[in-house]
């Protein structure tokens, strides 16, 4: 199949520049939220993956709508051969992968998911999803009709596939404060556990045992109670020493509740 590419040079969309500028502004939690950083939150990544893969797994068909509103499936339409579940949208990407990626873009980027349709001989031959920013999408102020551009040149509507959500902004943008709080909690948890977290308890003694005594006490305690085979052993203290269990504070408990939420 002979391949036709719209333009050789690349263009950066103004929508992407504004989106990146907006994402660089920190949230109330003090962190910036971008489409890439948002997906580092497990809850966000799981939600985006679930929605995009579920949509890409649905049956797809091309229908002809008559004047009375009735719909008739057109099985031999050229577009149907590009979007059905077992089809290839292009030489390197299946229809499943294409729709999944367009949904990921629509969920994480305000510009939505955009792809270019290659027409040859009056028929669509492939659908290509380029990197974000290659295709620019603008809405006219009067009617809201979309205008698509590649490298500043207007592209006919029939050459573009555009997937957007019901709101002007993507779900990631609308939830950026909540995602920012989740990112901040992830960093706090990483620093907390990276530094050894909170000890399970402490050994208290009224006597001044000195540095050498502390080292011997810790060495003896670790030898008796640390390791996979020492779990559950009864602790023995000496010279009036006492074991004090460490309790979670109200702040720690709230942190765990927020992590669970």
Describe the structure concisely.
With 261 residues, the chain is of the alpha+beta class. Helix content is 38%, strand content 17%. It folds into two domains: 14-176, no CATH class; 199-245.
Describe the fold and architecture.
With 261 residues, this protein is α+β, with helices and mostly antiparallel strands. The chain folds into 2 domains: 14-176, no CATH class; 199-245. 38% of the residues lie in helices and 17% in strands. It has helices at residues 14-24, 35-38, 42-56, 80-83, 95-108, 171-174, 176-194, 210-225, 250-260, and strands at residues 63-65, 71-73, 113-120, 123-128, 136-139, 146-150, 153-155, 160-163, 201-204, 242-245. The strands form 4 sheets. The chain has a 3-stranded antiparallel β-sheet with strand order 4-3-8. Residues 1-14 have low confidence and may be disordered.
Outline the fold blueprint.
Elements: H1 14-24, H2 35-38, H3 42-56, E1 63-65, E2 71-73, H4 80-83, H5 95-108, E3 113-120, E4 123-128, E5 136-139, E6 146-150, E7 153-155, E8 160-163, H6 171-174, H7 176-194, E9 201-204, H8 210-225, E10 242-245, H9 250-260
Antiparallel strand pairs: 1-2, 3-4, 3-8, 5-6, 6-7, 9-10
Name a few traits of the molecule.
261 residues, alpha+beta, 3-stranded antiparallel sheet, elongated, disordered N terminus
Low-confidence stretches: 1-14
Number of structural units classed as domains: 2
What structural category arises from helix and sheet content? Answer: alpha+beta
Distance between the termini: 52 Å
Beta-sheet strand percentage? 15-25%
Oligomer: single chain
Helix share, percent: 25-40%
- Helical element count? 9
The averaged pLDDT comes out at 79
> How would you spell out the order of helices and strands?
HHHEEHHEEEEEEHHEHEH
Radius of gyration: 29 Å
> Shape from CA axes?
elongated
Main sheet attributes: strand count, strand direction, barrel closure: 3 strands, antiparallel
Order the strands across the largest sheet as they lie in space: 4-3-8
Question: Would you report the number of β strands?
Answer: 10
């Amino acid at each position: 199949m002979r391949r036709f590419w719209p333009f050789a040079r690349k263009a950066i969309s103004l929508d992407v520049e504004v989106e990146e500028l907006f994402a660089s502004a920190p949230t109330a939690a003090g962190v910036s939220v971008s489409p890439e950083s948002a997906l580092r939150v497990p809850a966000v990544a799981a939600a985006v993956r679930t929605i995009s893969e579920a949509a890409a797994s649905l049956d797809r068909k091309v229908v002809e709508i008559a004047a009375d509103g009735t719909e008739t499936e057109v099985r031999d339409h050229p577009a149907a051969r590009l979007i059905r579940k077992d089809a290839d949208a292009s030489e390197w990407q299946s229809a499943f992968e294409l729709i999944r990626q367009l949904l990921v873009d629509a969920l994480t980027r305000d510009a939505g998911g955009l792809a270019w349709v290659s027409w040859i001989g009056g028929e669509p031959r492939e659908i290509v999803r380029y990197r974000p920013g290659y295709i620019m999408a603008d809405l006219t102020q009067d009617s809201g009709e979309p205008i698509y551009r590649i490298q500043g040149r207007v592209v006919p509507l029939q050459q573009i596939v555009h997937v957007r959500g019901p709101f002007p902004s993507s779900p990631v943008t609308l939830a950026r404060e909540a995602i920012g709080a989740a990112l901040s909690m992830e960093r706090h948890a990483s620093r907390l556990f990276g530094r050894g977290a909170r000890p399970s308890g402490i050994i208290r003694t009224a006597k001044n045992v000195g540095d050498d005594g502390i080292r011997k006490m810790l060495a003896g305690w670790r030898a008796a109670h640390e390791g996979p085979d020492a779990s559950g052993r009864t602790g023995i203290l000496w010279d009036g020493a006492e074991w004090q269990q460490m309790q979670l504070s109200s702040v720690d408990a709230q942190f765990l509740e927020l992590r669970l939420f």
